[in-house]
């Protein structure tokens, strides 16, 4: 908060209004080649999911075609997508990950 001063008296109190940052969903997309075990590993490593949580998300990806792994600010979401994509490529899997505005 900032305060305006004139002749040492307070004229008015200015309130700076900041909006919360936009949030983005990070999603994994189903494919016919990536193993279920690998998807669970990705969810545990990059999204800090328990084995049970990771299994539930993996099954949703498998059955519905995609699932949300987490909701983050733009920079964090971009980093997660890049990390998952690089890790998948490095391990020879075509697992796709993308983000969309929440």
Give the SSE map.
Layout (H helix, E strand, L loop, with lengths): L1 E5 L2 E6 L8 E7 L6 H12 L3 H14 L1 E8 H17 L5 E6 L1
Antiparallel strand pairs: 1-2, 3-4, 3-5
Largest sheet: 3 strands, antiparallel
Separation, N- and C-terminal Cα atoms = 30 Å
How confident is the prediction overall: mean pLDDT? Answer: 91
Order of helices and strands: EEEHHEHE
Biggest sheet, spatial arrangement of strands? 4-3-5
Total DSSP E strands: 5
User: What is the overall shape?
Assistant: elongated
- Based on helices, strands and strand pairing, what is the structural class? alpha+beta
DSSP strand (E) fraction? 25-35%
Helix content: 40-55%
Question: Can you put this structure into words, describing what you see?
Answer:
The chain has three helices and five strands, in the order βββααβαβ. It has 102 residues and is α+β, with helices and mostly antiparallel strands. Helix 1 crosses helix 2. It has helices at residues 36-47, 51-64, 74-90, and strands at residues 2-6, 9-14, 23-29, 66-73, 96-101. Helix content is 42%, strand content 31%. The chain has a three-stranded antiparallel β-sheet. Strand 1 (2-6) and strand 2 form a beta hairpin. The protein is elongated, with a radius of gyration of 21 Å. The model has no long low-confidence stretch (mean pLDDT 91). The relative contact order is 0.24. The two termini are 30 Å apart.
